[in-house]
Please model this.
Amino acid sequence: MMTSLQNKIPPPIIMLLMALLMWLLHFKMPIYQFNNSFTFYIGILFILLGLTLDVKSLFDFKINKTTISPISLNNATALVIEGFYRISRNPMYLGMLFILLGVASLFASLSCFLLVPLFVFLINHLQIKAEEAVLEEKFSIAYIKYKRKVRRWL
Model:
């Protein structure tokens, strides 16, 4: 019997909600504003890095002909361990994290950066732990060996 995921909110939606909260915090409750145009360029760099991670990781899933849906892991047909998956078990979520770091840098407000750990917490507890249980059940020894070799985030 396959374990089901408890989270029914796709991680990209969680990321977008976090970005929206950053926008709200920036305008309604800015804790500290950085007065440095350098943060804009850092933000663009992080967003591009995050998009690169996400697109390449999605492409790796397509090459392996397996589901890209984080909600329907029971449909997974292959364990993807190449590309960025050699250095992170979750490069798509890492990409989303980098995008949020980029958004926080663009707003240049400390209050925005406070939401980044919340995103990591939510993804770890609502998504990754359940995903790992499903993948371990589905791919057993191969996934356990992969988990021992590659870290969850970085």
In short: DSSP finds five helices and no strands in the chain. Residues 17-27+40-149 form one domain. The chain has one domain: 17-27+40-149. Helices lie at 11-28, 38-63, 91-107, 110-113, 115-149.
